[in-house]
Write a structure and sequence with these properties.
Layout lengths: L4 E2 L2 H23 L4 E7 L3 H16 L3 E7 L5 H13 L5 E4 L9 H7 L11 H9 L7 H14 L6 E5 L6 H10 L3 E5 L6 H5 L4 E4 L17 E4 L3 E4 L13 E4 L4 H4 L5 E2 L6 H20 L8
Parallel strand pairs: 1-11, 2-3, 2-4, 5-6, 5-7, 7-8, 8-11
Antiparallel strand pairs: 9-10
The chain binds NADPH dihydro-nicotinamide-adenine-dinucleotide phosphate (NDP).
The site of NADPH dihydro-nicotinamide-adenine-dinucleotide phosphate has 22 residues, from helix 10.
């Protein structure tokens, strides 16, 4: 059997960003409207800084207005809630994203609930979660939506396919399952208490893995010919790359799937890096331009 097709998330994401940029131009040219995304960053977590910088850069490249709000690591919850209240009420702001994780003094659920559902471009607000599961119009969480787009592009119609979602987090596993169900897949959701996990995974024609465990899913967990979407991003030591100046080993990124084994069994697979990751921000931009249209009573753009 030949190796799996590698699903090129970077290329998909570039295509989606182009469509978003065209929609943003249309909004400006035809309606004189700007699309604007406000990102809130609390504290000084280095990884969050990188994400926020990337989001801002790509938002501007798509022609949208990007505004960053920074709060100190010890900012009280009320300060963040006050800021959210202000941007909720500002008609110029179409999308609001609070970068997670938040410092301990701030209740994440309270913050998510405070964002206006119409501006919740992450799709994490309970109202939007309910809308997603009931088939109503809602912003869809970015990472699972990116996975869905790649699955549809790879497989076409997903109707009737046996899908396994490994992981049940609110930001990836659960919304992924909802999206696959809406596409008429027969969906299983597995987690840390699932029995016979390798066998259950090996039944799936579509396997989406989001567990945060480096290379946990082995080649023999995969049904021959299955489409595998690896959401995991894990940094592991890579002594084969040598050492850093301080003597610590260099590191590399791996997914939740043992890629070298899986690529020999699967029909198609996303790599890490270069698979799901790039799609996440592209989907955030998509959600923002859609939010801008909906807030101005315009039909959804073609993105
Ligand atoms: P969470 O830690 O919130 O959830 C992990 C899920 O995996 C849980 O449901 C947990 O089960 C399950 N799980 C953990 N260990 C096992 C195990 N040994 N066997 C079976 N199930 C297990 O993670 P996230 O969903 O937030 O993220 C998952 C991965 O995806 C991470 O690597 C993260 O970095 C990555 N990620 C990537 C993104 C991207 O843009 N590409 C975006 C978001 C996440 P239980 O519920 O029973 O505890």
């Amino acid at each position: 059997m030949s190796d799996a097709t590698i699903i090129d998330g970077k290329a998909f994401a570039a295509g989606l960003r182009e469509k978003v940029a065209a929609a943003v131009t249309g909004l400006k040219d035809r309606h004189g409207l700007e699309a604007r995304l406000d990102v809130v960053l609390v504290g000084d977590d280095p990884a969050s800084h990188v994400y926020v910088r990337n989001k801002g850069k790509q938002t501007e490249e798509a022609g949208m207005v990007s505004v960053e709000h920074r709060l100190a690591v010890d900012a009280p919850e009320q300060e963040l809630l006050g800021l959210i209240d202000r941007v909720n009420g500002d008609p110029a702001v179409n999308g609001i994203l609070v970068q997670l994780p938040l410092p301990d003094q701030i209740d994440e659920q309270k913050v998510t609930a405070a964002i206006s559902p119409e501006k919740d471009v992450d799709g994490f607000h309970v109202v939007n979660v309910g809308r997603l599961w009931t088939g109503a119009e809602a912003p869809v969480p970015c990472t699972p939506y990116g996975c869905l787009l790649m699955l549809k592009e790879t497989l076409g119609d997903l109707k009737g396919k046996r899908a396994m979602v490994l992981g049940r987090s609110n930001i990836v596993g659960k919304p992924m399952a909802a999206l696959l169900l809406a596409e008429h897949c027969t969906v299983n959701i597995a987690h840390s208490r699932t029995r016979d996990l390798p066998e259950r995974c090996a039944e799936a024609e579509i396997l989406v893995v989001a567990v945060g465990r480096p290379e946990m899913v082995r080649g023999d967990w995969i049904k021959p010919g299955a489409t595998v979407i690896d959401v995991g991003i894990n940094r592991i030591d890579a002594p084969e790359k040598g050492a850093n100046e301080d003597g610590s080993p260099k590191t590399r990124l791996v997914g939740d799937v043992a890629f070298d084994e899986a690529v020999k069994v699967a029909g198609a697979i996303t790599p890490v890096p270069g698979g799901v990751g790039p799609m996440t921000i592209a989907c955030l931009l998509r959600n923002t331009v859609i939010a801008a249209c909906r807030q101005n009573g315009l039909p959804d753009p073609e993105v």
